[in-house]
Amino acid sequence: MVSVLSTSQRLHENLARLIADSAPGERLPSEPELARRMSVSRATLREAMRAFETQGMIYRRQGSGTYVTHPTQVIDSGLEVLQSIETLARHIGLPVSLGELHIDPRTPTEEEAQALNIELESGVICVRRVIMAQDHSAAYLVDTLPEDVLSPKALEVDFTGSVLDLLLKQGNPPLASSRCEINAVTASVDVARAMHIQRGDVLLRFVAYLYAGNGRVVDYSYSYFLPGYFRFHVVRRV
Amino acid sequence: MVSVLSTSQRLHENLARLIADSAPGERLPSEPELARRMSVSRATLREAMRAFETQGMIYRRQGSGTYVTHPTQVIDSGLEVLQSIETLARHIGLPVSLGELHIDPRTPTEEEAQALNIELESGVICVRRVIMAQDHSAAYLVDTLPEDVLSPKALEVDFTGSVLDLLLKQGNPPLASSRCEINAVTASVDVARAMHIQRGDVLLRFVAYLYAGNGRVVDYSYSYFLPGYFRFHVVRRV
DNA sequence: CAGATGTCAATTGTCAGACAATTGACATCT
DNA sequence: AGATGTCAATTGTCTGACAATTGACATCTG
Questions:
Q1: Are the Cβ atoms of B235 and A54 closer than 8 angstroms?
Q2: Which residues pair with B205 in a beta bridge?
Q3: A222 touches chain B (CB under 8 A)
Q4: Which of A165, B53, B121, B150 is the most exposed place for a label (fewest CB within 10 A)?
Q5: What is the per-residue pLDDT for A181?
Q6: DSSP per residue over A43-100, as a string?
Q7: Domain A7-75 belongs to what architecture?
Q8: Would the Cβ of A3 be found within 7 angstroms of any atom in strand D?
Q9: CA-nearest residue of chain A to B233?
Q10: Which of B24, B78, B237 sits opposite A82 (nearest CB)?
């Protein structure tokens, strides 16, 4: 069975490439021309264009044409796209490995029960691990999930260090978005012990809720980052 | 002359309201039905739908229907929307005031010249100020702009503490997006002095490039935040 | 000559109608 | 009970057309 991309997907990729290859301010070919070139109807093309327009990559002016804005967004996506630390590290060329790993099935704390919107008596799986870079601990990640979301079996078989990648690969439940709160903190006693750093060292902390398509919270996580290893950024738009 | 909204704009607003008023997971009326109700063609409607789809507010399934995801994105926008600290503070109900303010016309440092992509001999305006909350300094913001972007006159007249708001109000040049890098740092000597805190205190730091529509960098800024006053978050999507 | 005005081709915005592909519920058969 | 066929509903895509706007050029006018 050959994996065939749908018309939309092909079109989207082709357009993305075209836009990425264009200089800022450059005018794209006209819609009839593009539709011919991409072998789709103008209506379908326009819908795809609208997608790029809402992302601020192009703007259209009636009577004049379609123009690309600066391609910052294309070559450079930030925190606003949901991807794991491992995927992010791979993109920036930082070799990372999985350090100490703990997988605890247990009952949730009051905070976790509230965050995940579950009963105190129900079960959760808590995944704690250290991410190593250049033989030093660079991050400490703690994920808490309802036990029915992720089977312990899947965790044993092919856990590479990323709960997010596992959930994405599993495909069920379908993930929608994540709300990530950003703080600067000093290392607490247990975080310092896990990362082998001094208590009081400065850390970047993310507290995140991961939402499934139906609105359910499927993962509540704390992530601690030692400055210098990762570079996080956000693209902000008007 | 009456200001009339274009068909697209009306449609967009109506759809936004409809989606916002829907419960998570709810199915929207069919496309032909919606097109009739909004008095537009199905093609136009679909283009607007695509806009909301790329924003993750709805998803469409062929043969089944169009569904709204949870309205997190609607009620809760984060760092990914470009707005000033003052606007953000107003939204969360934190009363802030402008503390010590310095406006320096000077020549750029090497770092600034490179960031703004200008000559070392050209002029820049450097705006430094402290943001106060509850009688304590909560943030320290340093903006550097090419001198032709912002007239010193505008700064004198109605500067409320936000360079971004001033540029948005001025409308020229039109702003497109901002790239904001996120770090956790300890206070350096001069930052500590400006904020009246201890050297070595933990701070959240943003380093941001503000882009105009033509791709030019119009503002290069450092922002330091004392933990506890502001809450920053990002909505991340697949 | 400078500025206003008209003309026109190119381009995006919108429309109507049609058919294809998929889904989900229901009925039917084994 | 489970597999299979049927069918209406819904989104995906296509075609061709016309309206509205833009920008360049020619033309008129004081």
A1: no
A2: B183, B224
A3: no
A4: B121
A5: 93
A6: HHHHHHHHHHHHTTSEEEETTTEEEE--THHHH---TTB---HHHHHHHHT--EEEEE
A7: Orthogonal Bundle (1.10)
A8: no
A9: A181
A10: B237
Distance CA B59, CA B66 (A): 6
| Closest CB from A177, A185, A234 relative to B180 | A234
* Residue B87 backbone phi and psi in degrees, to 5: -60, -45
What single-letter amino acid sits at B208?
A
Domain ranges of chain A: 7-75, 85-225
CA distance A195 to A130: 7
ipTM of the complex: 0.72
Among residues A89, A71, A110, the alpha carbon closest in space to that of A230 is found at: A89
Give the pLDDT score at B75: 42
- Separation in Å: C29 C1' and B63 CA: 26
CA A160 to CA B17: how far, in whole Å? 42
Per-chain mean pLDDT for chain A: 87
Is domain B85-225 classified as CATH 3.40.1410.10? yes
Task: Find the helix or strand (DSSP H, E) in which A101 lies.
Answer: strand A96-106
User: Which 112-171 residues of chain B touch chain A by CB within 8 A?
Assistant: 168
Query: How many Å apart are CA B201 and CA B15, to the nearest integer?
Result: 47
B118-145 pLDDT, tens digit each: 999 999 999 999 999 988 999 999 999 9
Asked if residues A107 and A166 have their Cβ atoms less than 8 Å apart, the reply is no
pLDDT digits (tens, 9 = 90+) for B55-70: 888 889 999 999 988 6
Determine, for residues B176 and A82 on separate chains, whether the beta-carbon distance falls below 8 Å: no
Sheet bearing B124-133, strands edge to edge: A232-237, B175-186, B202-212, B217-225, B136-146, B124-133, B96-106
The residue count for chain B:
238
CA dist B212 and B174 (Å) reads 6
